[in-house]
Amino acid sequence: MGISTEPYSPDKTPKKHPLSLQLDVSKFEKATDEEKKQADVMSESTSFFRDGMRRLMKNPLAVFSIIVLIAIIATILIAPRVVPYSYSEIITVNGRRDKSATNLAPFTYSKMEQQYMAQGGKVFPHIMGTDELGRDYFIRVIYGTRISLTVGVFAALIVLIIGILYGSISGYFGGKVDLIMMRIVDVIYSLPDLLMIILLSVVLNEIIKPTGNGLLARLGTNMISLFIVFGLLYWVGMARLVRGQILTIKQNDYVLAARVSGAKSSHIIRKHILPNCISVIIISAALQIPSAIFTESFLSFIGLGVKAPMPSLGSLASAARSGITTYTYKLIFPSIMIALITLAFNLLGDGLRDAFDPKLRR
Amino acid sequence: MEEKFTPDSQYLVQAHDMKMYFPIKTGWFHSKPLKAVDGVSFDIRPGETLGLVGESGCGKTTVGRTLLRLYNPTGGEVYFDGKKVDAKSIGGLRKDMQMVFQDPYSSLNPRMTVEDIIGEPLDVHKLYTSRQDRRDKILHLMELVGLNAEHATRYAHEFSGGQRQRIGIARALATNPRFIVCDEAVSALDVSIQAQVINMFEDLQKQLGVAYLFIAHDLLVVHHISKRIAVMYLGRMVETADSNELNSNPIHPYTQSLLSAVPYPDPKQAKERKRIILEGDVPSPLNMPSGCPFRTRCRYATDECKAKMPPLTDRGGGHMVACWNK
Ligand SMILES: Nc1ncnc2c1ncn2[C@@H]1O[C@H](COP(=O)(O)OP(=O)(O)O)[C@@H](O)[C@H]1O
Ligand code: SF4
Ligand SMILES: [Mg+2]
């Protein structure tokens, strides 16, 4: 059918094959010098982390939130050492209970305090006034912030740990394991979280009666059930995220290369998969903190929060509702705090995402 | 009963009737096998190169990965150095069988330095006595593939495609393997860089005596480096012969069309040799034609081709062809 099959013969041209128009034999030598030169003009070595930090520091909103967060954390650490009041202490002047020191406006003093000061005594100013029981409001807001932040960070940690473990197992092993694990996630996803928290705290109140003076005992069963519910329910979002990341990263040939080298699953997860999705995980953990703080504030606001007299930002705001027209400042201070913290964490999370994972940008 | 396959000690790698079917979901509970590789056999001698060519999607990558048991094969046997490769024995053989990948970007972890990428197989098999020994071995490997040792602490994204491929080759060489699957190892590179890298593969083979399964979709690339060439079509081998014999005397209609697509340096030669343009698309491996897989695009196809699958038969001197009419 006219197909010529002998247009060339390799024997005639032992050195330069006629087929090697593209692969010219004379070119077949190591171009190491050239390559080295090429390599020498490469940019300064930059690690992924340093690169991301540089981008983060160029983002004014992110830098602003970092400053705000550092300021808040410094304040809640230092203030209790400077301010001579405690969050549960009713103001006394010279050892006597000061009944007139209730509902003071910011930077004002009660009659007893004024008398005492007139006699030459020293009284630490009530920066945010006092509450209806005569407790210094500033220190209560500080402790409330402490509690709220702790709750946020711990809840995010719980979510992070469970989510990473569950998501990475599901994503890495895939197949049937993945299918079953993800159906469980779907079921959990559909449970109403607030209802679960309310039910659990009722049940827990019956079962465990935290005693003693530990932090958990002071926080109360509501907080414990909040943590438990976070541990039981809220990790599913994180697990889904981790799984999705791992499914994408698993496609890369470097994972296959590690398997060709004989690496075990644990090695591959540790060395290849986690380092490549850790930034996404940390970013969404940063975004988890304000959401936990918000949930806690909301629960405290509806009366399911920390146990009195321990304050949280939510319970402070809740207590301030009664005198909202006369003592508006009592609602404003904790609300501003909640807003500042959630905003700062959200902006920081966004900044981190932009700096470390430009692909995720929308 | 099928006769039992006995490995031949003169070969380093032997694949016998290798099959790899992927289950493809067709519904909630149903799946259909996608026959990516369907009964492929070949042998590779120590220090020798077998070229594997075929259009994209014909199952070349699957052959390479099944050979290294990255997939659990549906059927057939693989022997390495006389030992059967199975789920149990593969752990001990990983050191000897390595792979170089097509994509120089996705094959290197962007969060790792060159040193750690090349050092990974050393770490996995604990092939060093001290930190210094590890570093010396890595620097030696970098030198072997023509990389500047000063760049050991850099990240892969700072290198060009050709350099990245050298990093991947150094990693494959780290455990001192006797066999490397090069899966389109140069396809993603510029033509001039391809030449350098292929040349390096040849040098390394001379120095280290390593055998290659050299996969490419381009006959030119394979011809230069391979002693023997195997041509694949839709998961099957259609022709195998010595490299020169295949180029000068292609028998299978598919091989002929592949060769006719090769660009010629001499316009007169190019004119003499008519291009055979293949009509139609490659059939889906999910919907394999009956009989000869090539019959939907073959101009010599007859009724016999429709009825029966042609077996590979020797046409003299080990030139094997699977075709009824040629
Ligand atoms: N993991 C997999 N699952 C399902 N199908 C696959 C998988 N890998 C490859 N295939 C299919 O097998 C066929 C051969 O693919 P491949 O071996 O990658 O071909 P080549 O390397 O020659 O381009 C293709 O049709 C491809 O879609
Ligand atoms: S067997 Fe028939 S269809 Fe297949 S290549 Fe030969 S002639 Fe063509
Ligand atoms: Mg391929």
UniProtKB/TrEMBL annotation, chain A:
Q: Which parts of the chain span the membrane according to its record? A: 60-79, 147-166, 187-204, 224-242, 273-294, 331-352
Q: Which domain of life is it from?
A: Bacteria
How does it sit in the bilayer?
Answer: Multi-pass membrane protein
The record's principal subcellular location, in a coarse class, is membrane
> One biological process GO term for this chain?
transmembrane transport
Domain ABC transmembrane type-1 as annotated: residue spans = 145-349
Q: Does the keyword Nucleotide-binding apply?
A: no
Cellular component terms (Gene Ontology):
plasma membrane
Which SUPFAM superfamilies does the annotation name?
Answer: MetI-like
Q: To which protein family does this belong?
A: Belongs to the binding-protein-dependent transport system permease family.
Answer whether the UniProt record assigns the keyword Glycosyltransferase to this protein.
no
> This chain belongs to which protein, by name?
ABC transporter permease
Q: Which Gene3D superfamilies match?
A: MetI-like
The record's subcellular location field reads: Cell membrane
Q: What keywords are annotated for this sequence in UniProt?
A: Cell membrane, Membrane, Transmembrane, Transmembrane helix, Transport
